[in-house]
Amino acid sequence: MKKLFQKLAKDYYWRANNFGKKLVRAEESTPKSVKLIGLVTIFVATAIGLAWYLKGKNVAVFQPTGTIGEQQLRIIYIALILSAIVVIPVFIMAISFYVNFREDNKKSTYKPNWDHSKSIETVWWALPIVLIGVLSVITWNSSHQLDPFKSIASAESTLKIQVVSLDWKWLFIYPEQKVATVNYAYIPVNTPVDFQITSDAPMNSFWIPQLGSQVYAMSGMVTHLNSEATSEGVFTGSAANITGEGFAGMNFKINVVGSSAFSDWVESAKSSPFALDWDSYQKLAMPSKNVPDTTMTLADGSVFDLAVMKYMNPGLQLESFNSTSGGTY
Amino acid sequence: MFGRLTVEAFKHDFVAMGGALTMVLVAFGIVAALTYYKKWGWLWREWLTTTDHKKIGKMYLYASIVMLLKGVADAGMLRAQQALASGAGNGYLSSEHFQQIFSAHGTTMIFFVAMGLMFALINFVLPLQIGARDVAFPFMNAVSFWLFVAGALLVNTSLVIGEFGAAGWLAYPPLSELAYSPGPGIDYWLWSIQIAGIGSLLSGINFTTTILKLRAKGMTMMKMPVFVWSVLGSMLLVIATFPILTATLLMLSLDRLAGMHFFTSAFGGDPMMYINLIWAWGHPEVYILILPAFGIFSEVVATFSRKRLFGYTSMVWAIGVITVLSFTVWLHHFFTMGAGGNVNAVFGIMTMIISVPTGVKVFNWLFTMYKGRISRMTPMLWFMGFLLSFTIGGVTGVLMAVPAIDFQVHNSLFLVAHFHNMVIGGVVFGYFCGLIYWFPKVFGYKLNEKLGRYAYWFWILGFFFAFAPLYVLGIMGATRRLDHYDASMGWQQLFIVAAGGVGLILVGVLLQVLQVVVSIVNRRKNLDKTGDAWGGRTLEWSIPSPAPIYNFAVLPVVKSRDDFWRMKEEGTTVKPKYEDILVPKNSGKSFVIGAAAFMFAFGLIWHMWWLACLTAVVAIVVLTVRLSDDETEYVITAKEVERIEKSRRPHAA
């Protein structure tokens, strides 16, 4: 058995060696320029292939339909260009040094003890510092301008939507329109929206890629995501942070419509037979997966505040936890 | 008696049963083989009780490879599920099982593969590079290792008994709290990391002391090899940050075991505090792993370019700057928590600043190659692969350092692709590079070059096929950790390509296994008889391969950087004067402490309080006995040293 194994290994080793030799010879016979053209061709072909493949597909971050997403895309391009200033020379140097200073190229100069150059080293400490300096200014400004908590200036008044992350569905409450929905929402186009987000379940993240930005949904507190859609359509939003078993099914649709269509939708929602109050909310909050779109009227305007404040109220918490998690506390 | 451990814990669904059976069969196979070949005594004397840093390094290596195979298998299962689970297809894994697997994948890869390989390499190389005969605390080194094994075993035990955590590799509360994860899974996660983490902290203290106190005469700080500098940076980070991890995990444990409310969302707990604390450890952890890889590349590029490392002083400063800055960026892991413009901007800018010293290192490596004579062996290939993928990872990293951009890609597969770019392309490639490079020093023969090349090409191609689609998926809006998605999203084809990429990587891993097997079989052809396998520059190449138990028969006196290169150039040989050498004795107590730690954790996970108390007492008693023991070393006489040296160096003298 041992002998057989040794023989097999030997055999394999022999073949591997010989195959390798042929490979090396083939490599040496190819001129450098052909190799370079080959590399560039592969690179360009990959880029074109990818572009062709993505044509007609929904590449959300690169096809924003919201003012925030549009500005973010601009910053992505700027950061990419700044990075390219360093990265492209690095790639060129890496490949050309690797090719030119290979062992068997005796024509190249060899300076085994050259290990220091103040001027060269100063350049590559300084160049990244300058680039990062530029990017820092952009970072500072954009962090403030695109802070999701910052409300968007507009002639239209801001629409308030309260969002609750539940196990495992999203509840949207329209406090002014007195309606509520599960796993879908309507918003008017070209109107600022202030999503007021909380969680009555593990921490989640509320993200509508095409509109731009995501913010964590956390229990006992309210975060804000200000957004403004610039074109009509149906966009997918997702639960970006794991909240347990059913979180993959927690995606939702945001329907961006004209303002009159929005009013029509509100009117139709108001005729829903279901009503949201604290009792029905608690039933809704029980864990459930892949929940279908649901429309409700808002019977009790304090549901959102109660969902936030229950984490500040021990009595309310005990009752709620014992009902949703089988009495762990 | 058995706490909450009941027969239920052994019941699994069909797929999970496969994992459980594999574990049981592997364990049974090992026990059967040891018994059949009557190797228990040998195992105990030669391995389980050893305090020799080289053997401990080997055991770290073996354990990490086993965990790597498990981690890669996990990755394959995850991508296979995602390639299938589109629209009407539900894949073959339940959500719960899928979530356990990605949690286990991350935990395994970071704590038990990356950390394990890192400690393997440090154990192999560090004492040899500074001309020391051992680490500062050989017994503590063994304790660290057995704590590491106890942690790794806990992860594997969860496959058979009970379940693993399903809240991700960092188990954010409140999901990881009792209210949402009442089962033993999170406890397995907590205690496996807690115990391995304490081992890592001990190692950090050990190696820092070794570097500061045991360097050969004449080796001033600025004459240390760059690998030693990088390990020093890394180990200082270990000392500074692992206590944070320990404390954080302890608080979460208290929440779960004692009904406390550090991180619960209710009753005054604060989950955000956990996320801050875990990343205050977690971000430096990334640098703990990458710094030694930087050190490895610095050694390898200089050796294989047959040239001095370019810009040594810049390199050292870059390591120092990275070490310090790595503490100042943790918040970039949660810009989306809503800290506001000022806070986010400051942490974003700090993050970008780290790319400056990192870029400097890249330029220095490039100019080490410039005007060199590059020998294109596999370690150099891994370096080139690293350079390519790490630079791409650097660009995507800078993108995500801008909070405004991060809001658009955080928690998406773009992020997943980015950190795999860094951790595979940086850390793993670096460690593979180092393992091939130092393999002859540790085992006495070189690895098969051809199979190494094939493995490399499968790895690098697989890597790009596995992660390039994830960047695209990320900007298409695909979030991480999805066990199912709507067919209308149009993601499936890219997920299939990514799964294919994992398949290629898997072939690469199998080729590496084959490479090791073939190298063992053919070892006589590839023996490193000179001790200087690659034309090395640093002290470890001045002694025979594999290194003798005492490392250096005569302690070197260092005069310059790359001191072995200097010796070779000057060509001076002095007749060695041998002396008696003190070597640490073997001790089974480290193994007992590791075993006790394992049982202690098992007891806590399953609420068997008597077991936890008993094993805690055992560990403390054994440790106390050991600490009161003064006879921990034995002497190898000068004569014996001379005999060993003459047999090991037929060409010398």
Task: Tell me about this structure.
The complex is a heterodimer of chains A (329) and B (653). Chain A is an alpha+beta fold. Helices cover 46% and strands 20% of the residues of chain A. Chain A contains 8 helices and 12 strands. A 7-stranded mixed β-sheet of chain A has the order 8-5-1-2-3-12-11. A 5-stranded mixed β-sheet of chain A has the order 4-10-9-6-7. The radius of gyration of chain A is 30 Å and the shape is elongated. Chain B is globular and about 75 Å long. Chain B has 19 helices and 2 strands. Chain B has 653 residues and is mainly alpha-helical. Chain B has a two-stranded antiparallel sheet with strand order 1-2. Chain B is 67% helix and 1% strand. The longest helix of chain B has 35 residues, at 95-129.
Topology:
The complex is a heterodimer of chains A (329) and B (653).
Chain A: H1 2-29, H2 32-54, H3 67-100, H4 118-145, E1 159-166, E2 169-174, E3 179-182, E4 184-188, E5 192-199, E6 204-207, E7 214-217, E8 223-228, E9 233-239, E10 252-257, H5 259-270, E11 275-276, H6 278-285, E12 294-298, H7 303-309, H8 314-324
Parallel strand pairs in A: 1-5, 4-10, 11-12
Antiparallel strand pairs in A: 1-2, 2-3, 3-12, 5-8, 6-7, 6-9, 9-10
Helix pairs in contact in A: 3-4
Chain B: H1 14-36, H2 40-48, H3 53-84, H4 95-129, H5 138-160, H6 185-213, H7 226-258, H8 271-304, H9 312-325, H10 341-369, H11 378-401, H12 403-409, H13 413-443, H14 449-475, H15 492-521, H16 563-570, E1 581-584, H17 589-605, H18 609-627, E2 633-636, H19 638-648
Antiparallel strand pairs in B: 1-2
